[in-house]
């Protein structure tokens, strides 16, 4: 059964004819355009008319592409920034290391010059680490007995005194710094020559020195080693006077000084290999603590014994004027061991009068009965001599 429109509504050619016609027409245009290039103008006009539509269609694609490029460039820039920062840190470390090496080289040159100027033997040492005790001012060096280091030898840098060797091992040694509370060095004022002893103050950055109130010392004076101890060579700089504390109640002044040497600045030091055989080894903390306990115990016992002896010797007087220890009447003859004759009689009679007038509250310190002359003079004659 055919479903074609009635003849009344038929208009033009059929669809099949149209398809064939347009296909042939397209092929003809292709052949003519390829052979004669006669459709260039038509193509340009069509392209110009359709360009806005093409841009509108391509906008989503371009937007997505730009967004992807933005994120890609951001990630790339972040990565590049991270690499640049890493390079900057490495370069900064290199610069700092170079500066540190330059400072160490300068310090070593100064120490070598000091070693040449210093009489006697010496050895360069490097600080390995600080002591584990936070309350002690000590450091560990990389030189020991095998390099000739011995107990008591001084340690210096290019500025002045650092400390003293207090413990020695075969390959290392322990140095007590100048600021340690148990460290003391004989010094003298470089300007006036006044001698004294300077002591450390533990964790404080200052050094302590005590002088008389009339001592010739001023702010800014340089203190050098006096050499009287036989350890430190004379003339090594130790400290600089920073403050003078004077008190009206005492005859001494407390002088606060700052160390001249770089106590916590340098890593290379110089050990002076002086002879220390004549020096007694330093006491350990345990021995020092034991001695302090023994001294305190002895002092406490002696005080108690003195109090007991004083309590036994102090005997109260009875109301009748006699002493229970002697059962003798308190008279001028009994209080004085002997009553001198002549001019000295009046001088010895005065204490007896004071003892008699004190009454029952007066005590007489006596361990045995006082000596009495064979023929004591009467009290009346003593009063007459006093008059």
Automatic annotation (TrEMBL):
Residue ranges, compositional bias (Polar residues)? 319-329
Alphabetized InterPro entries for the sequence: Cell/Rod_1, Cell/Rod_MreC_2, MreC, MreC_beta-barrel_core
KW Transport (keyword) present: no
Q: Which GO terms of the cellular component aspect does the record hold?
A: plasma membrane
Gene Ontology biological process: regulation of cell shape
* Record's compositionally biased regions (Basic and acidic residues): 298-311
Residue ranges for the region (Disordered) are 282-387
Q: Does the keyword Ribosomal protein apply?
A: no
In terms of domain of life, where is this protein from?
A: Bacteria
Q: Which UniProt keywords apply?
A: Cell shape
Residue span, Rod shape-determining protein MreC beta-barrel core domain? 128-272
Among the Pfam families in the record, one is MreC
Q: Which family does it belong to?
A: Belongs to the MreC family.
Spell out the protein name for this chain.
Cell shape-determining protein MreC
**Protein species of origin:** Undibacterium fentianense
Source taxonomy lineage? Bacteria, Pseudomonadati, Pseudomonadota, Betaproteobacteria, Burkholderiales
């Amino acid at each position: 059964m055919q479903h074609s429109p009635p003849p009344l509504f038929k208009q033009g050619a059929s669809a099949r004819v149209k398809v064939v016609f347009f296909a042939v027409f397209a092929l003809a245009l292709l052949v003519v355009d390829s052979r004669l290039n006669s459709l260039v103008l038509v193509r340009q006009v069509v392209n110009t008319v359709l360009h806005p539509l093409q841009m509108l269609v391509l906008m989503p694609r371009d937007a997505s592409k730009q967004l992807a490029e933005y994120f890609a460039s951001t990630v790339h820039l972040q990565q590049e920034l991270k690499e640049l920062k890493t390079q900057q840190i490495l370069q900064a470390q290199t610069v700092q290391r170079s500066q540190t090496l330059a400072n160490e080289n300068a310090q070593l040159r100064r120490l070598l010059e000091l070693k040449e100027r210093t009489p006697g033997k010496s050895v360069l040492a490097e600080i390995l680490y600080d002591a584990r005790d936070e309350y002690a001012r000590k450091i560990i060096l990389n030189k020991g007995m095998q390099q000739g280091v011995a107990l008591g030898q001084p340690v210096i840098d290019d500025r002045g005194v650092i400390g003293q060797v207090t413990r020695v091992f075969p390959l290392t040694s322990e140095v007590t710094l100048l600021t340690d509370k148990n460290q003391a060095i004989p010094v003298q004022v470089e300007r006036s020559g006044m001698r004294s002893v300077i002591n450390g103050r533990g964790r404080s950055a200052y050094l302590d020195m005590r002088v008389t109130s009339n001592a010739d010392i001023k702010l800014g004076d340089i203190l050098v080693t006096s050499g009287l101890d036989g350890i430190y060579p004379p003339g090594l700089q130790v400290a600089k006077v920073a403050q003078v504390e004077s008190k009206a109640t005492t005859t001494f002044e407390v002088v606060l000084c700052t160390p001249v040497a770089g106590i916590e600045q340098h890593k290379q030091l110089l050990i002076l290999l002086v002879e220390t055989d004549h020096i007694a080894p330093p006491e350990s903390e345990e021995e020092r603590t034991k001695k302090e306990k023994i001294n305190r115990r002895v002092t406490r016992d002696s005080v108690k014994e003195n109090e007991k002896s004083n309590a036994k010797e102090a005997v109260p007087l009875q109301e009748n004027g006699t002493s229970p220890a002697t059962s003798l009447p308190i008279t001028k003859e009994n209080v004085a061991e002997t009553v001198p004759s002549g001019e000295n009689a009046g001088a010895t009679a005065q204490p007896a009068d004071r003892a008699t007038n004190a009454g029952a509250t007066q005590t007489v310190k006596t361990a045995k009965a006082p000596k009495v002359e064979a023929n004591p003079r009467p009290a009346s004659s003593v009063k007459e001599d006093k008059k």
